[in-house]
Design a protein that fits this description.
A: 330 residues, 5-stranded parallel beta sheet, 11 helices, globular, B: alpha/beta, Urease, subunit C, domain 1, TIM Barrel, 2 domains, 6-stranded parallel beta sheet, 14 helices, 19 strands, 29% helix
Chain lengths: 330, 427
């Protein structure tokens, strides 16, 4: 765990926590290695809480957290809701799809309206890249990006890194393969940024049509076959094929995709023996992942990811609540 | 002669027909009376000591979007005229993508009569739609609208997908020696795209428009111009890879010309980083290599014309998530200072630069202005090329202030603008 740097008073923060420098959490690419690691260190103290009978803390008592989801989400929204409630905050869920946005209200209008309600923390998911950053410029409270278009999903990357660290003891030096629909994936972008920051060798595997232009300049190696890409991998991270974001065909059929890029027991053998499998969910079984792999508790970390998600989000909420504590809303 | 004559002395004259700036004087009323070594002025003439400032023909901007008729909240003849005069633009060609579309003789007539009436004297020439409703299917009455005074014919920002339609239009228009301007962009490759395709777009999670979308269509257009003998202007090039095809066509004697938006000469894709929607343009700002190639093409004359690409958008159309925000930037007031950046950097000479905004457009449009020559209309600007300033887009005279140059440093300002000898700026 990180040493507490000089200058942090004993009574100001918890024993391992380092004051977070940013007002918002918008993108992994805004963080340096020390900041990312200190968030994971924070999460470590929250992880055991889920196993206790009484799971609630009062760190955020009296604070208001608004979940603002412009895109449907089950797991991320409930994960943030649980994290907020376990920290003692009052949590309000706003599903914007069905409300005023349908009546033509712009993102900025929504931001102004919410700002007037003076929340302390705003968790936002939006279908357009950069939309959360735009919204953050118009509100006084801390904003957490819960996924913006095809840009970033920082808490997903943090929980993935936390899950790997928890299981394998560290990230430095690991070979991690991210496979499938890279081009439409904010999870891939955040994970490449975070895992390379933490010292892993990251590989991207997928057909050329699902690989972003210039991906080889992200610090990751690009492969187009599972056999080459999975060689010696410690962790295999599968991505959901996001057919809702696709215009026209990016590959001929789900059947063909599964044949070449779907993770089953045979393809998993290309990786290092004992390699672990991850998936951010929700899964398309039989498209990018086979049930025999997804449900095998010896290799699959998919359930652990969900469990760790709450602890990581508690850590993020706490870190941002400390930063924003002294700031007046605009 | 109803206009009071003006004598400007001690000026650095930028004659776009010449290769170098020359010190001298210019005497004009509604037309240019004398230039060079002028010693005497008629009685009652206003005598201006330019104090070594530059004098050039008023700029001819071949690509301006005006909201009138149909979108007067964005820009009117009056506000566009004010902005143009302040920016040294004395003639502007207005794009036909209005509501209704300028696809009929009577609308061409409307713009010609009402435009100059409202614009404070700035000359407004309509570009006519090349196809009815700009739908890319049925050609408009090219001959009748040319007679009515249409400057050229264009499908605006919507490329004509059907090669047959463009072929027929180029072929038919050649009978009237009419110029056809076409935006080369393959709509299938560009579909959903909002910025230059590349590393940065991928990182921002924004769908890109590859350079190939431009040069594929440009090669087709050039082939059609060659096939028909029509006169083609490739409208607002953005990609380096398009330029060799243009050069080959010109070398073969195809009547092919090209323009570039001034923004693409001084900005690149990095200006979009941070989701800056004010730098969201169509075609998109491309890489630094592309920008450098475009600058070289201006220096060599391969690209004929620099335009402002003036495209007013209200704040609410721009203050949106990047993918949802409107394309376009205002440019009438920043065309000259932005272009002067190239002269300050010594990438392009002042004469070459001014030529691309005066004489070349005048030649393509067969206009008598855009020159410093005896007998030419006295559309004249006095420029202080050195003055640095920080652009405050709230102070722009346009009705919209969507400028990517907001808060950026620019150098060079128009001191005075004359049209047919009359001062239109400052007022």
């Amino acid at each position: 765990m990180a040493q507490r740097p000089t200058g942090v008073k004993k009574n100001e923060a918890r024993t391992t926590a380092v004051r977070f420098r940013h007002k918002h959490l918008l993108a992994i690419s805004d963080l340096n290695r020390f900041e990312a690691e200190s968030l994971l260190d924070r999460a470590e103290t929250f992880a055991p809480l889920a196993e206790q009978k009484i799971k609630k803390l009062d760190t955020l008592r009296g604070r208001t957290l608004i979940n603002l989801f412009f895109e449907n989400s089950t797991r991320t929204q409930s994960s943030f809701e649980l994290a907020g409630k376990r920290m003692g905050a009052d949590v309000v869920n706003m599903s914007v799809r069905s409300s005023s946005v349908a009546k033509g209200e712009t993102l900025i209008d929504t931001a102004t309206t919410l700002n007037a309600m003076r929340p302390d923390l705003l968790v936002v998911r939006h279908g357009a890249s950069g939309a959360v950053e735009l919204l953050s410029q118009k509100v006084g409270c801390a904003v957490i990006n819960a996924g913006d278009g095809k840009h970033e999903h920082p808490t997903q990357a943090l929980l993935d890194a936390f899950t790997i660290r928890d299981r394998l003891g560290g990230i430095e030096g690991l070979t991690i393969a991210i496979c499938g629909d890279i081009v439409h994936s904010r999870v891939a972008r955040s994970n490449v940024a975070l895992l390379t920051l933490l010292g892993a060798q990251v590989r991207l595997i997928g057909p050329p049509t699902l690989m972003p232009a210039g991906a080889e300049r992200w610090g990751a190696k690009v492969f187009h076959t599972m056999k080459d890409g999975l060689k010696d991998a410690d962790v295999v991270m599968m991505l959901r094929v996001q057919r809702e974001r696709m215009t026209g065909g990016f590959f001929p059929s789900p059947r063909e995709f599964f044949w070449f890029y779907g993770l089953d027991e045979d393809k998993l053998k290309f990786a290092k023996p004992g390699a672990l499998v991850m998936h951010p969910g929700p899964m398309n079984r039989g498209v990018e992942i086979d049930s025999s792999v997804a449900d095998n508790p010896n290799v699959s970390l998919i359930e652990t990811q969900v469990r760790m998600g709450v602890a990581v989000r508690m850590a993020v909420l706490e870190a941002l609540a400390e930063t924003g504590a002294n700031e007046e809303p605009r | 002669m109803s206009v009071r004559p003006v004598l400007i002395t001690n000026a650095k004259l930028i004659d776009p027909a010449k290769s170098k700036v020359e010190t001298g004087a210019i005497l004009f009323a509604d037309t240019i009376l004398d230039i060079g070594n002028v010693t005497s002025a008629p009685d009652g003439a206003e005598i201006i000591d330019a104090g070594g400032a530059h004098v050039a023909p008023g700029l001819i901007d071949m690509r301006v979007v005006i909201g009138e008729p149909g979108a007067e909240h964005k820009e009117t003849f009056k506000s566009a005229g004010r902005a143009a005069a302040a920016g040294g633009v004395t003639t502007m060609v207005m794009m036909p993508n209005t509501t209704p579309v300028l696809d009929d003789q009577s609308l061409i007539d409307f713009v010609l009569r009402r435009g100059i009436d409202k614009s404070g004297g700035v000359r407004i020439l309509p570009a006519a739609a090349l196809t009815k409703h700009l739908d890319g299917e049925l050609m408009t009455e090219i001959g009748l609208m040319a007679e009515a005074g249409a400057a050229f014919f264009t499908n605006g920002d919507t490329p004509i997908v059907s090669s047959r339609v463009l072929r027929r239009a180029l072929s038919y228009a050649s009978a009237f020696d009419a110029l056809i301007a076409h935006r080369p962009e393959d709509p299938y490759l560009a579909e959903d795209g909002v910025m230059h395709e590349g590393d940065l777009a991928a990182r921002l999670g924004l769908p890109g428009i590859p350079a190939a979308a431009e040069y594929i269509m440009a090669e087709r257009d050039l082939a059609l111009a060659e096939l028909t003998g029509g006169k083609l202007l490739l409208d607002m090039l953005s990609a380096a890879q398009t330029l060799p095809a243009l050069k080959r066509a010109k070398d073969r004697g195809v009547k092919a010309f090209a323009s570039v938006n001034v923004h693409h000469l001084v900005l690149n894709e990095q200006d979009v980083d941070g989701y800056r929607t004010f730098a969201k343009l169509s075609p998109p700002l491309r890489s630094e290599d592309d920008r450098k190639a475009l600058v070289e093409a201006i220096a060599s004359g391969l690209i004929d014309v620099i335009v402002s690409g003036h495209d007013p958008q209200q704040a609410e159309e721009k203050r949106l998530p990047f993918e949802e925000a409107a394309f376009g930037a205002v440019g009438l007031e920043t065309l000259l200072p932005a272009a002067l950046t190239l002269a300050h950097n010594e990438d392009v000479t002042l004469n070459t630069l001014i030529r691309a905004m005066t004489l070349r457009p005048a030649e393509l449009l067969k206009l008598p202005q855009g020159r410093l020559a005896k007998g030419a209309p006295a559309d004249i600007i006095i420029i202080d090329t050195g003055t640095p300033f920080r652009l405050d887009s709230d102070k722009l005279k346009s009705k919209s202030n969507n400028s990517p140059f907001d808060e950026k440093l620019l150098q060079g300002a128009v001191k005075r603008t004359f049209i047919a000898g009359k001062t239109v700026f400052p007022q």
